[in-house]
Design brief:
Elements (H helix, E strand, L loop, with lengths): L8 E4 L6 E3 L4 H15 L6 H8 L15 H21 L3 E3 L6 H7 L2 E5 L4 H10 L8 E3 L14 H10 L6 E5 L2 H9 L3 E5 L10 E3 L2 H18 L3
Parallel strand pairs: 1-4, 1-6, 4-5, 6-7, 7-8
Antiparallel strand pairs: 2-3
Helix pairs in contact: 1-3, 3-5, 4-8
């Protein structure tokens, strides 16, 4: 991986980028954990429709057609998701990727680090704190209930985060594993590193197999700028 600029801010995805959930099955999670709680609250929603709204093949507000308040629905889902994560910790199934140690070097080399995730802020803080990673970040941005359709690949959360720290998209970099990260970053005008946790996602500006490759790329640019300035 080779960068052509030194970013003033790097945005990280969290789930499947910094941490992962061993033996996680999305449908099983929905049917075992989420569905019973939705039904208890009078919300009838099958997995097929849920997954389409989760992936934004349909807007998350679409469930209004079923008489469901989408904000209330996602608050329920996020509270269940937090309980799920806590349960997975007890089973030893929440893991950090081994190369996450590189975050210490990335923090030294980059003025601002932040996370933007489609999960709730509470869920993201929980797993970051679990592995003592929150200390690296200046800002943690999760789902915004005032704009539930604003999750990645929509650029809304990325733009919101950059505005909060006063950094232009032109000098920012986004690191993520998924197509939603790639599309969201590009739509926000941010250059994107596809961290290939589960294979290559086309459309990114840069590709890395590990976070240490990002460290090397940052060091190369920083060293080059120092040499050019005569330091």
């Amino acid at each position: 991986m080779k960068l052509d600029f030194l970013p003033k801010a790097i945005i990280f995805d969290v789930d499947e980028t910094l941490v992962y959930y061993e033996d996680y099955n999305h449908r099983e999670w929905f049917e075992k954990w989420v569905l019973p709680e939705l039904k208890r609250r009078g919300m009838e929603l099958d997995y097929k429709l849920y997954s389409k709204t989760a992936r934004l093949e349909l807007p998350r507000s679409y469930v209004k057609k079923l008489g469901i308040d989408p904000v209330e629905m996602w608050k329920v889902i996020d509270s269940v998701n937090l309980r799920f994560r806590r349960a997975m910790v007890l089973k030893g199934r929440v893991k950090r990727f081994q190369d996450v140690d590189a975050m210490e070097e990335i923090r030294i080399l980059t003025p601002k680090l932040l996370t933007v995730t489609n999960a709730s802020e509470e869920c993201s803080r929980f797993v970051l704190n679990l592995f003592d990673l929150e200390k690296y970040f200046d800002l943690i941005v999760g789902k915004d209930y005032s704009n539930i359709d604003g999750v990645k690949p929509n650029p809304y959360l990325i733009e919101k985060a950059l505005k909060a720290i006063g950094v232009s998209p032109r000098v920012a970099l986004l690191v993520g594993d998924s197509i939603n990260d790639v599309k969201g970053g590009r739509r926000a005008g941010v250059r994107v590193v596809n961290l290939q946790r589960f294979g290559r996602v086309e459309g990114a500006d840069f590709y890395a197999r590990t976070l240490w490759e990002i460290v090397e790329a940052l060091e190369d640019v920083a060293y080059g700028e120092a040499t050019d300035s005569g330091l």
